[in-house]
Amino acid sequence: MADNxxxxxxxxxxxxxxxxxxxxxxxxxxxxxxxxxxxxVEDASGDETLQALFYxxxxxADGWVKVIPRAVNDGPGTARNVGWEFAKEPYIAxxxxxxxxHPEKLxxxxxxxxxxxxxxxxxxxxxxLRDSAPPPxxxxxxxxxxxxxxxxxxxNAFSTPTVILRRDIPFRFQEGKRYAEDLLLWQQIAFAxxxxxxxxxxxxYVHKSLYGEDGLSAQLWKMEKGELRNxxxxxxxxxxxxxxxxxxxxxxxxxxxxxxxxxxxxxxxYLLRYEK
Length: 276
Description:
By secondary structure, the chain is an alpha/beta fold.
């Protein structure tokens, strides 16, 4: 593990992830600029996850990995809030227990945040990386895009493992919310007038298809309801007007039915191919 520490706390919510969390933590330990602390919030898994986390804690320098067990499972948003309150550093980075980072992720983002102190939230691209594939090399000339509040009504510009934000911002994940809780936080930050930016390089990786292995129709509908609830909350808080609310709602439902149709077609092709 490198000796170059930086002012970042990494928060990883952990729920029944004993088989994947080591890969996530290793990707943090292999950073060219590693964080001051890694906070693993065990969200009442009820299996061997907690033992796996304490095993990881003992693999690294004393105090670098911190384990916070929870008695009640309230979902990843609440678990991240628990880690957020525990964190000591001025910047917070999120990672999920089944995802991983490019080795230069923190170096690139931390340097960007230091050079742009007005930015409250910085994310980047995220791609599906097969386990046997090497991570892509970041371009030498990185481009950053400002993300407007209105654009976040129509598309989530960030997956959670890509985000670094300032610890002192006055927003948190909505307690107990399990679907689209990350998007709601990004929206609240942006609609408060704080700067939100995306670096156009894939520096974080998921290791399974977003709508393949776990993309059941029931799960998709829960995600859709989470997005629609966000729009209702923003409308009731007078963050968006009626026209934007209706437009974003219609667009969200159209995306949902498109994903559902794509999934049904995929399942039909599978049946035709393997169940003759």
